[in-house]
Amino acid sequence: xxxxxxxxxxxxxxxxxxxxxxxxxxxxxLCPNLFDWFExxxxxYQVLYLAFSEYCKQxxxxxxxxxxxxxxxxxxxxxxxxxDKINSLALVATQYTMPKKLLQFQNxxxxxxxxxxxxxxxxxxxxxxxxxxxxxxxxxxxxxxCINSPVMVICGEKDAANKQASLQLQSQLPQAELxxxxxxxxxxxxxAPEDLGKALSAFFNL
Length: 206
Description:
Blueprint: E1 2-6, H1 17-23, E2 28-30, H2 45-56, E3 63-68, H3 70-81, E4 86-92, H4 100-112, H5 125-133, E5 151-156, H6 160-172, E6 176-181, H7 188-191, H8 193-204
Parallel strand pairs: 1-2, 1-3, 3-4, 4-5, 5-6
């Protein structure tokens, strides 16, 4: 069974490297670089989600998906719209209703950051801002009931911005379990890759 790992905004597919090393060589893991899908296309969330949906059409059997932040939102929406295509979902630092004030503050910070900060992430400064702005009105609360697969909601112990949302998400999904990873902030795949890898391996039964 395929397991797909989706990175967050400000990350690349290489952000999963140490997590994958912990998950074992026998696991069939795919780790696409999300921003490659923007080639010659408008940079916005809707385009990214459609590209991910197209990517998943190659799989005939249900898949496991783990997404962090932006990747978690993609995984959540795909799980809502394609419940029969999902074996299990792991949602790391994932908001199901976008925190508008937080995104607006994030965009303000992006505007003051130098362009070179974004060079290694696969998107330019303007593209980062446009992608973030395009997500402000996303709200999946009413559709959460469409998910019928096992779900593990994951949050770093020090991720104050997403901890409450993770608790609320788990409470609204009867089939979901919650895992808080110690000594980790928002980027759990960077801060605690071994703990995350072990948790995913057990949950996905790899």
